[in-house]
């Protein structure tokens, strides 16, 4: 292949080959149909005996050409007599446009396209001329009827250019099989209407017009590529066409005008493969189409573009991942994967195909059976040995396609160190206050003060992020939070506790404000649902260990206060990876950093109601279990198990949103959270309460990736910090009000009535979210596409 490269042809490798190596090269080139092309390009470095051998091949191929031309004339006359209209595909019809002399192109069958209404007439004409269907091909998925052959008694003797080798005739009835490949090729139905007449081998023949001719050649190539049996010559032929027509602006203008985007996308796959293998020149129009290929397809070419050429020597099915990169439906992907990994059909006939029944003796039948078994065993071995490398390559491809980038993982590591300590602090702080003699009303006041502080700090936090950047704001939030948490663990009087709670919330709001924009800045829009899913799942997974450890540290350190001091100091360790973060400067201009859209109003109103509901219980989860007589260690275990379940469900959230759409998935999770809160309101004993808590928390947080994705996808980059600030402004306001009111109500009425009311409010939030943000409402009010289409 290097010797046939258009940009940098390298002949030195061939010049150093031994005679034995030349025989291997010729054997491969015969099967790949490259021998005659290789002779044209590299004759200067061929040994004399190779020149002689390939010269004989070329001479015999010219004899075959005369047979092919005669057959075209005979078929044209026979089909015309029966009124069957057709056009000729592939073969020597390519030569005028593909820069190839007919005598230097190997051809082994005649391909004709006929509209379905002409197929019966064509089959009758072929049958009258002595043709019959090739046995064993009736159930194979093709775009044509079973190949028609003449049983002349010819047998294969290892000569790829034997002039006596019969030519099969294939009658195609479609240009592309959408149902099998699960890839639409709109526009191919127009090929027949645009057919033209050209002189081929001295007589007029209906063929495809030039843009359609190239398109069909590439579709034929892709069909074989995706099925794992591509011929190198087909790629080389496309590369030569593209190279010759790279500067033909008229051709490419017509090509783009005639073919719709999806059909051009499929052809771009052929463009990219040809360039990867043979380095041909490309017209800017073709390059532009390559740039439009899906990201997964581009990554496949970076990693596996040569895999199809190497599959004969290193069994693989890497083309499967190319196929999947072009699909949109999980059902289609599953169908293609099963068909390619677990073939459900036995091979067709492999021997004595051209022998008439009268010449097949019982000895020959035994030989045919043995050869068939040998071939079937070889194919079975190929499929079996290709599975492990295909699985490995699939994992590599999936990881590259779904890679979230170094910036994301660095930020995630900072968040892990920061939040691990805060999980411990949050688990123990309310219980520490209970030990100091405070009740739910004061706990509600402290939590409300923290939320008010967050509320007060949200807008300044967004302004700081806009003014100083995401990195500096993040560093300040981590350092400030760590210092204040240590001070909170030292103080014991009402006023300092309340004031420090306010300061803690004020500083922590900066973390909340920059968290979502940092993830949005670290990954592409396509990867944001997965990034948010991974982030929240990691945070919940972190809580598994942190809550378990936090429930036991007071026993080991003999004091909740000591653990709180340690956790405050540990929070500062998040500075180490955070210092390594680097972000591109945020886009500025336009005079404001806060979004001004009807979408945001529609989003924030039900969002506020949602946090009124969840904020009524979340600050009191540990106290809820403590009032039921549950020990600190067991509370830690319950929270740890709940975090484990949350980690799993949040990872599944992107799959749910991909299937239902963002808004529908969020509404479902909100409704499920309301049901979970109703279970907590019943105050069931023992494990039932832990189960209700786990369900409530899992459904609540499963909505978070969708909420963040929906918000970030509907604002400009320069407005993300502002949007995040407004988002948390509303959330903290609702949570502050809910925590204060809930603390008072819990003291008076207990947990049952308060949680039942909160469940009703959560259900109201789900209804409002659907009413305000369902696709029809969003499509007319938002600056972006309908929310339910974002992930499809």
Secondary-structure-derived class: mainly alpha
State the distance separating the first and last CA atoms: 39 Å
Question: What is the strand arrangement across the widest sheet?
Answer: 1-2-5
Measured as a percent range, the helix fraction is 55-70%
Mean pLDDT: 85
Question: How much of the polypeptide forms β-strand, as a percent range?
Answer: under 5%
What is the makeup of the main sheet?
3 strands, mixed
Compute the number of strand runs. Answer: 7
Task: Draw up the topology in text.
Elements: H1 12-15, H2 19-32, H3 35-42, H4 48-81, E1 87-89, H5 95-98, E2 109-113, H6 119-128, E3 132-133, E4 148-149, E5 168-172, H7 178-181, E6 196-200, E7 203-207, H8 210-226, H9 232-244, H10 249-258, H11 261-278, H12 284-291, H13 295-304, H14 307-310, H15 319-325, H16 330-341, H17 362-401, H18 406-435, H19 440-468, H20 470-490, H21 494-522, H22 528-557, H23 560-571, H24 575-578, H25 598-614, H26 621-627, H27 632-660, H28 662-681, H29 686-702, H30 704-713, H31 720-749, H32 751-773, H33 775-781
């Amino acid at each position: 292949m290097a010797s046939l490269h258009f940009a940098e042809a390298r002949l030195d490798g061939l010049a150093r080959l031994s005679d034995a190596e030349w025989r291997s090269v010729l054997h491969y080139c015969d099967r790949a149909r490259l021998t005659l092309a290789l002779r044209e390009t590299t004759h200067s470095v061929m040994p004399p005996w190779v020149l002689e051998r390939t010269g004989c091949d070329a001479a015999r191929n010219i004899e075959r050409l005369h047979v092919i031309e005669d057959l075209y004339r005979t078929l044209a006359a026979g089909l015309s007599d029966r009124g069957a209209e057709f056009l000729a595909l592939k073969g020597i019809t390519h030569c005028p446009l593909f820069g190839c002399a007919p005598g230097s192109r190997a051809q082994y069958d005649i391909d004709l396209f006929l509209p379905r209404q002409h197929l019966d007439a064509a089959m009758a004409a072929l049958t009258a001329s002595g043709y019959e269907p090739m046995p064993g091909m009736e159930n194979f998925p093709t775009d044509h009827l079973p190949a028609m052959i003449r049983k002349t008694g010819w047998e294969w003797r290892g000569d790829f250019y034997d002039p006596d080798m019969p030519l099969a005739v294939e009658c195609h009835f479609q240009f592309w099989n959408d149902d099998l490949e699960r890839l639409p090729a709109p526009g191919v139905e127009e090929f027949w209407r645009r057919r033209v007449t050209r002189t081929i081998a001295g007589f007029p023949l209906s063929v495809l017009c030039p843009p359609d001719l190239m398109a069909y050649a590439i579709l034929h190539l892709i069909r074989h590529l995706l099925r794992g049996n591509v011929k190198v010559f087909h790629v080389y032929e496309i590369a030569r066409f593209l190279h010759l027509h790279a500067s033909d602006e008229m051709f490419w203008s017509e090509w783009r005008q005639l073919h719709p985007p999806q059909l051009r996308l499929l052809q771009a796959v052929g463009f990219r493969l040809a360039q990867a293998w043979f380095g041909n020149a490309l017209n800017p129009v073709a390059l532009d189409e390559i740039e439009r290929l899906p990201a997964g397809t581009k990554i496949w070419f970076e990693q596996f573009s040569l895999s199809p050429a190497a599959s004969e020597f290193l069994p693989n099915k890497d083309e499967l991942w190319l196929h999947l990169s072009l699909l949109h439906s999980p059902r289609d992907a599953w169908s293609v994967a099963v068909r390619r990994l677990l073939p459900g059909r036995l091979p067709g006939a492999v021997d004595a195909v051209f022998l008439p029944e009268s010449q097949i003796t019982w000895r020959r039948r035994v030989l045919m059976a043995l050869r068939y078994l040998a071939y079937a065993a070889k194919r079975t071995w190929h499929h079996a040995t290709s599975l492990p490398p295909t699985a490995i390559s699939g994992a590599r491809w999936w990881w590259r396609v779904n890679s979230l980038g170094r910036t994301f993982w660095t930020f995630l590591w900072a968040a892990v160190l920061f939040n691990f300590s805060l999980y411990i602090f949050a688990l123990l702080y309310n219980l520490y206050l209970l030990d100091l003699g405070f009740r739910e009303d004061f706990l509600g006041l402290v939590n409300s003060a923290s939320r008010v502080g967050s509320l007060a700090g949200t807008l300044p936090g967004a302004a700081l992020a806009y003014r100083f950047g995401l990195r500096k704001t993040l560093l300040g939030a981590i350092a400030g939070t760590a210092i204040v948490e240590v001070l909170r663990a030292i103080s014991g009087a009402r006023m300092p506790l309340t004031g420090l709670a306010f300061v803690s919330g004020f500083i922590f709001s900066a973390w909340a404000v920059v968290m979502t924009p940092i993830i949005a800045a670290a990954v592409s829009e396509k990867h944001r649902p997965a990034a948010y899913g991974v982030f929240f799942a990691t945070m919940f997974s972190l809580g598994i260990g942190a809550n378990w450890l936090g429930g036991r540290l007071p026993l080991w350190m003999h004091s909740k206060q000591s653990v709180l001091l340690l956790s405050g100091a540990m929070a500062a360790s998040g500075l180490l990876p955070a210092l390594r973060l680097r972000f591109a400067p945020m886009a500025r201009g336009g005079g404001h950093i806060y979004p001004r859209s009807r979408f945001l109003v529609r989003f924030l109103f039900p969002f506020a109601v949602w946090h009124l509901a969840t904020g009524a219980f979340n600050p009191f989860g540990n106290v809820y279990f403590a009032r039921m007589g549950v020990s600190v260690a067991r509370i830690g275990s319950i929270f740890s198990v709940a975090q484990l379940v949350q980690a799993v469900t949040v990872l599944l959230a992107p799959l749910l949103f991909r299937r239902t759409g963002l808004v529908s998935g969020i509404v479902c999770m909100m409704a499920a959270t309301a049901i979970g809160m109703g279970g907590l309101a019943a105050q069931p004993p023992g494990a039932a309460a832990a189960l209700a808590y786990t369900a409530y928390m899992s459904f609540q947080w499963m909505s978070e990736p969708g909420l963040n994705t929906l918000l970030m996808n509907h604002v400009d980059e320069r407005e993300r910090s502002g949007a995040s600030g407004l988002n948390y402004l509303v959330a903290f306001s609702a949570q502050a009000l809910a925590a204060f009111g809930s603390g008072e109500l819990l003291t008076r009425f207990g947990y049952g009535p308060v949680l039942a009311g909160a469940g009703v409010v959560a259900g109201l939030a789900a209804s409002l979210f659907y009413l305000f943000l369902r696709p029809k409402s969003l499509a007319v009010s938002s600056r972006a596409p309908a929310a339910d289409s974002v992930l499809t």
